Amino acid sequence: AGNYRTQLWDKQSESFLPSTPGLGMHVEVKDPDGKVVLSRQYGSEGRFTFTSHTPGEHQICLHSNSTRMALFAGGKLRVHLDIQVGEHTNNYPEIAAKDKLTELQLRARQLLDQVEQIQKEQNYQRVRTGVR
């Protein structure tokens, strides 16, 4: 999951604006094989999520869809990007409410997710180092 926020440069105040309404961003994510797993248009700030079934390095590209605004801003655009991976992307209070889980059931779900993430990481390390 990724959260991003953009800020345009303001020539007059010589600082970045707190927000950039009207600016659009295209987010594209490719897996290690170059296959596109996400390609979508968003606003000046937003959240995107994707699930990859391929271990390895992924490419995340953010493209501004408005060159006019960038030129107006003197060509400067600041992008804040926060990426979360694995079980850290799960919203457990939301899961508990939706599935009507007790606290114990929710904790068990969290532990199972953590074990699954450890297995994925071990598999990734095996692939990366060539050990089978």
UniProtKB/TrEMBL annotation:
<dbReference type="GO" id="GO:0005789">
    <property type="term" value="C:endoplasmic reticulum membrane"/>
</dbReference>
<keyword id="KW-0812">Transmembrane</keyword>
<comment type="similarity">
    <text>Belongs to the EMP24/GP25L family.</text>
</comment>
<keyword id="KW-1133">Transmembrane helix</keyword>
<keyword id="KW-0256">Endoplasmic reticulum</keyword>
<feature type="domain" description="GOLD">
    <location>
        <begin position="1"/>
        <end position="85"/>
    </location>
</feature>
<dbReference type="Pfam" id="PF01105">
    <property type="entry name" value="EMP24_GP25L"/>
</dbReference>
<dbReference type="InterPro" id="IPR009038">
    <property type="entry name" value="GOLD_dom"/>
</dbReference>
<keyword id="KW-0472">Membrane</keyword>
<dbReference type="InterPro" id="IPR015720">
    <property type="entry name" value="Emp24-like"/>
</dbReference>
<protein>
    <submittedName>
        <fullName>TMED4 protein</fullName>
    </submittedName>
</protein>
<keyword id="KW-0732">Signal</keyword>
